Amino acid sequence: MAPSVSQNYFRSSLGMKAEIAPAVARDYHSHIVDWMRANGNRLELDGLSFRLAKEFGFCYGVDKAVDMAYEARAKFPDRRLFLTYEIIHNPTVNQRLREMGIEFLSGALKGEAGFADIAAGDVVMMPAFGVPAEYLEQLRATGCVLVDTTCGSVVHVWKRVEKYAKDGYTALVHGKALHAETLATVSQAQKFGGHTVVVLDKAQAELICRVIAGELPPQAALALGPLAFSKGFDPARDLGRVGVANQTTMLASESLEIAAMVRSAMVTRWGAENIDAHFRSFDTICSATQERQDAIVELVESGELDMMLIIGGYNSSNTGHLLEIATGRMPAFHISDAAEILSLGEIRHQPAHSRQTTLTHDWLPPGPATIGLTAGASTPNRAIGETIERLAALRGIAVPLPPAPGSLILHKSPKK
């Protein structure tokens, strides 16, 4: 008998939460971070002080995706298990899944198998970013078991661009054209015959706005390059009615500015009295992204810090935007994990708006220092705790595991 839809498709827990809880806690939790949460997000060492942002690290969607990956491995121990792409943008998490025997069908971690090798009985997981609609249909046709970890906030954006497409509006998406989430989002509009244009930032949006307002000829929009547009996109036809959406991890303030820019251009072209027939916009930044961005603003403006450390994968969009917020306000370093702190005098990090790591010397001043900490939504608490331990060890300070909230004892390591 063929398996039912419920046996072949999982969108929530696979019923193995109790079984996987110890492994998840071991791999991703941190006693130090737990203690800081219970003590005002502050930690005082001998010469080092740490301040943790109010919101940081794994969001609900990432928690769910990681749990479902562990559940899938536990529920189907003897089956081939695949991920269509990185489950989240965190190298430690993805490497751990590889160690658990989960293979990747695409991306930098791709194994020997590809989409064409999937067969009935295999288990295929979709990442928190989702997958393009055509990939999903291809997988459904194989009869494999599908484990869909797509974040609910991403699905919310999909519903919005689907509505735009059905109502005859082009979806203008503030995002990165080749980001897994944006690729999946634009596919949802195209599934219903809609057109899309992706803008990375306000500069690209300004070009589109000048075309909409009639300041530039329609073909000028194509300077953004073919990756920005859906197949068959005609700027003269497809920029007359526009709905704005965004990749959920973009800088929220910039997304709102872009929406305002497009609305203003539409008013210039069509008049304020006709705006509803030509422009739509809904804020689709996820609440977790907004909360983490608001929290780092509050932390860097507290006046307490000497510097910020932002922890997360270098290809993590939301982590990069946290760095952008801190950069220019104080010394700020985006590191993938504690191993990037090479010594008290050297740190390897990725600067804002860069895709390359760099080495900075004399980054931590001698003497007392107060360091702010935050992490992207795909960064486990363990990475934060390990960063604190790394800095403490370099300063010769022991950080014993706290036996209970409020009872952490800190002291200098004994001289050897």
Task: Give the count of structural domains.
Answer: 3
What percentage of residues falls in helices of 4 or more residues? 25-40%
CATH architecture of the largest domain: 3-Layer(aba) Sandwich
Low-confidence residue ranges = 1-5, 403-416
The chain-level structural class is: alpha/beta
Strand content: 15-25%
The shape, in one word, is globular
Most strands sheet: 5 strands, parallel
Order the strands across the largest sheet as they lie in space.
1-7-6-4-5
In words, what does this structure look like?
It is a single chain. This protein has 416 residues and is of the alpha/beta class. The chain folds into 3 domains: 24-59 and 288-412, Cobalt-precorrin-4 Transmethylase, domain 1 (3-Layer(aba) Sandwich); 60-151, Rossmann fold; 153-285, 3-Layer(aba) Sandwich (Cobalt-precorrin-4 Transmethylase, domain 1). The chain has 14 helices and 18 strands. The strands form 5 sheets. The chain has a 5-stranded parallel sheet with strand order 1-7-6-4-5. It is globular and about 65 Å long. Residues 1-5 and 403-416 have low confidence and may be disordered.
